[in-house]
């Protein structure tokens, strides 16, 4: 990976901090709460900090913090970070713009973090961001990330936090023109065993053309996170906040395109889920999941236009999207259960259930399929199964009629009898023979019957934006 200095050698943390200090244009504030002043310490350590740091502070006491930034229900959260960034950035402008605004690009760096406590019982994570000018008197740009510190010792977590903070500032100042390279640079001097970054958002003048969905996918693609999420409007979601205290219902698919069967499956599953949980279960979030395996082409790269087409179609249906690197369902379940103690369900077609019960996918596990199913169902997760009709035979395949390998029949019967695997009722029979692959083929062949296979809003989007190889027919 190349760097801003034009060589193949990645600059270390010391070199990055020193380069920032020696840049006479950069001047701003550091506000850090929760794990010490680990980021600004680098700039004091390398020398030349007087040319960079207008102020460094750490308002540990809650009352002191509230007096500066206003009261907050939680102190390690995105709204708190944004308040810190806005306050410190605006204060720099109000105090210094008149005297040095023509030659200075101001910035405010902030983080609010919960590092490992004495007993080791807390969630080790934090929010970090920088609000900055690329050039003097420029409009602001901003980058926000959510980090998880994975080291087992407090001192190591603080060290990792300091490094990723310097990387973020260096990227903002010298790599803002190349946001994907900036993302890759966040791990300089670290490994994915020490730091996870599960959310990044670019905003402001320098990033006005950046699609944050692509940036979130980049995090998963390079291993900085196992999951990224975004809302129907494209806004990036931080998984632990989006899933907190919610029941979760997931449908995995290719969604290329989104078909009637996809939306009908989720409708039926939601009805069953709500009925099974009862009126006191609390809110439920529905997720449409794409896996990186499904998005990658043969060479391992991702077709961005194809990804955005799928994301836009799901957005047109009002769906929240999750991209994961968890091909195995038990890994996805484990991830989701790490963020919510509520109920989780996955809905899938009967053909996908057959794949789930195929032992060839579990040869790398010491316990094989038994281990995978044990992990999947250990927290009372349930599967809602959508039927399908076999092409040519008109035979409906359900939980009851699914063909299972003889050696797995008793295990399968146990899962069904115990309520882990449940048949969905109320499916629209007209949709049971609709498959995304057939709709895609018809779109590319110019067969207009594809329109009857997808929701109206999806058809409209495909035609307006000419997605998935669509070309209007010539009259």
Molecular structure report:
This protein has two domains: 13-210, Maf protein (Alpha-Beta Complex); 241-431, Rossmann fold (3-Layer(aba) Sandwich). The chain has an eight-stranded mixed β-sheet, sandwiched between helices. The chain has 17 helices and 16 strands. With 475 residues, it is an alpha/beta fold.
What's the SSE blueprint?
Layout: H1 13-21, E1 26-33, H2 38-46, E2 53-57, H3 62-69, H4 78-100, E3 105-114, E4 125-133, E5 140-149, H5 154-174, H6 179-185, E6 195-204, H7 212-221, E7 227-230, E8 236-237, H8 239-243, E9 247-252, H9 260-277, E10 284-291, H10 292-295, H11 304-316, E11 320-324, H12 329-337, E12 344-349, H13 350-356, H14 368-377, E13 382-386, E14 388-389, E15 396-397, H15 409-417, E16 421-423, H16 436-445, H17 456-465
Parallel strand pairs: 1-2, 1-3, 9-10, 9-12, 10-11, 12-13, 13-16
Antiparallel strand pairs: 3-4, 4-5, 5-6, 7-8, 7-11, 14-15
């Amino acid at each position: 990976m190349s760097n801003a200095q034009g060589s193949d050698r990645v600059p270390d943390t010391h070199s990055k901090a020193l380069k920032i200090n020696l840049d006479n244009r950069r001047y701003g504030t550091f506000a850090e709460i929760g794990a010490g002043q680990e980021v600004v310490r680098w700039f004091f350590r390398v020398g030349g900090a007087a040319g960079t740091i207008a102020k460094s502070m750490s308002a540990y006491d809650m009352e002191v913090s509230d007096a500066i930034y206003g009261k907050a229900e939680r102190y390690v959260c995105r709204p708190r970070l944004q308040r810190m960034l806005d306050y410190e950035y605006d204060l720099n402008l109000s105090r210094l713009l008149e005297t040095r605004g023509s030659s200075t690009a101001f910035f405010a760096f902030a983080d609010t973090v919960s590092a490992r406590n004495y007993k080791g019982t807390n969630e080790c994570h934090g929010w970090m961001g920088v609000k900055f000018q690329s050039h003097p008197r420029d409009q602001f740009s901003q980058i926000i990330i959510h980090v998880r510190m994975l080291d087992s010792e407090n001192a190591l977590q603080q060290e990792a936090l300091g490094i990723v903070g310097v990387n973020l500032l260096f990227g903002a100042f010298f790599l803002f023109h190349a946001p994907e390279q900036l993302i890759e640079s966040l791990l300089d001097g670290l490994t994915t065993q020490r730091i996870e970054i599960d959310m990044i958002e670019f905003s402001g003048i320098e990033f006005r053309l950046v699609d944050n969905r692509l940036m979130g996918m980049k995090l998963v693609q390079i291993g900085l996170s196992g999951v990224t999420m975004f809302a129907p409007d494209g806004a990036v979601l931080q998984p632990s906040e989006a899933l907190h205290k919610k029941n979760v219902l997931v449908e995995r698919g290719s969604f290329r395109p989104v078909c009637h069967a996809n939306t009908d499956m989720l409708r039926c599953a939601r009805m069953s889920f709500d009925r099974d949980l009862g009126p006191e279960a609390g809110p439920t979030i529905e997720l449409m999941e794409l896996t990186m395996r499904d998005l990658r082409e043969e060479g391992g790269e991702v077709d961005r236009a194809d990804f955005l087409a799928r994301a836009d179609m799901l957005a047109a249906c009002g769906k929240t999207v999750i991209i994961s690197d968890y091909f195995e369902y038990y890994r996805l379940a484990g991830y989701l259960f790490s963020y919510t103690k509520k109920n989780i369900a996955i809905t899938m077609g009967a053909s996908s259930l057959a794949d789930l019960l195929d032992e060839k996918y579990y040869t790398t596990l010491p316990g094989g399929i038994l281990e995978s199913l044990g992990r999947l169902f250990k927290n009372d997760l349930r599967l809602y199964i959508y039927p399908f009709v076999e092409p040519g035979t008109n035979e409906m395949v359900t939980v009851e009629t699914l063909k299972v390998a003889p050696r797995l029949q008793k295990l399968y019967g146990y899962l069904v009898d115990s309520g882990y695997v449940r048949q969905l009722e109320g499916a629209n029979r007209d949709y049971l023979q609709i498959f995304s692959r057939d709709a895609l083929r018809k779109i590319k062949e110019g067969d207009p019957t594809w329109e009857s296979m997808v929701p109206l809003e999806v058809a409209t989007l495909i035609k307006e934006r000419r997605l998935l190889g669509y070309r209007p027919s010539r009259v």
